[in-house]
Specification:
By secondary structure, this protein is of the alpha+beta class. It folds into two domains: 5-164, 2-Layer Sandwich (D-amino Acid Aminotransferase, Chain A, domain 1), CATH 3.30.470; 174-344, D-amino Acid Aminotransferase, subunit A, domain 2 (D-amino Acid Aminotransferase, Chain A, domain 2), CATH 3.20.10. Helices cover 24% and strands 30% of the residues. It is built from eight helices and 18 strands. Strands 1, 2, 3, 4, 5, 6, 7, 8 and 18 form a nine-stranded mixed sheet that branches. Strands 9, 10, 11, 12, 13, 14, 15, 16 and 17 form a nine-stranded mixed sheet that branches. Strand 15 (292-299) and strand 16 (303-312) form a beta hairpin. Helix 2 (86-100) packs across helix 3. It starts with a strand and ends with a strand. The chain binds pyridoxal-5'-phosphate (PLP) and 2-OXO-4-methylpentanoic acid. Pyridoxal-5'-phosphate binds at residues 70, 230, 233-235, 254, 256-259, 298-300.
Length: 353
Amino acid sequence: MLDIKVTKTANPKAKPEGPLGFGKVFTDHMFLMDYTEGIGWHDARIEPFHDLTLSPACMTFHYGQTMFEGMKAYRGADGECWLFRPDMNAKRTNNTNRRLCIPQLPEEDFVQAVRALVSLERDWIPTAPGTSLYVRPFIIAADPFLGVRPSETYIFCVILSPSGAYYASGLEPVGIWIEDDYVRAVRGGMGFAKTGGNYACSLAAQVKAHDGGYSQVLWLDGVERRYIEEVGAMNIFFKIDGTVVTPMLNGSILPGITRDSTLTLCRAWGIPTEERRISVDELIEAQRAGKLEEVFGTGTAAVISPVGKLRYKDEVFTIGDGSIGPLSQKLYDTVTGIQLGSLPDPCGWRVRV
Ligand code: PLP
Ligand code: COI
């Protein structure tokens, strides 16, 4: 158990009014904990939200030894506050850390830190439909040193951001650009890890997609540029001729928690599911044959995000009639219902704050 020292702000901010957007507003406090080689994690504390002061030689700036997580806290109609499967974020943190040579963080300490901060900031959890308190835990290498090696000191920090929908369009179907030039990750690399470099690497293609009028990029595999991987901030699902298909976890895509929850729900509903390699050619063939029924992305920030349009090599494919499909809608309603405490939680995914 962490012994968390709490220093409260003397100047609480006014809560935002009106549309929140995503990731723009931050709450009054943050969680911090330091790591020093030979000592371990120490000095767990909650402090007023403030800027970090770091040496310009801080290793994280130069070589990107860093990780982050993304989760949400929800407030139901009855006022109860919930987290969704925080143990999964804690486990994924350590999988990322292993790949990045960042020290392991005990899972129970990760969850305790998030719960303590969210509990203190519970009045910041927005309640308008589609809103929640986005939780961003992250670790940075802290040594002031210009050589390339794992840092000997780290900072673990958690910040909170009351947020609305990740896409400005909300639950409206998004347009996705299938990228056939840039790649995001290769097997043996760090695609499965939640680390800044994967997102830095995605920006050039994302700008290209945005300039073309698309919300996000759908990545193909880094070797053949043939097999579908995932979207910029979501895993991807296809409903083809009654079967729900999603790329298998192959080391180069992020093992999404919403992906896992979606597969569990589909299986419980008796829908056939397949985790396997799926090529862009197979997808287009299914579309041309009228068998591609629905496409949707899954992610903490994006929840269940219907895809209305796919672009590949100058061809544009409209999925169904371009509106949200019945399975995407049912998944969205069920996942958010469990998260908000308004539906039963047979798998025990909700954790009370
Ligand atoms: N893939 C990428 C690249 C992501 O950034 C995210 C978001 O976290 C996901 C998939 C979805 O993961 P999760 O459902 O755990 O949020
Ligand atoms: C999340 O869904 O939590 C993410 O981390 C996506 C993020 C890149 C905005």
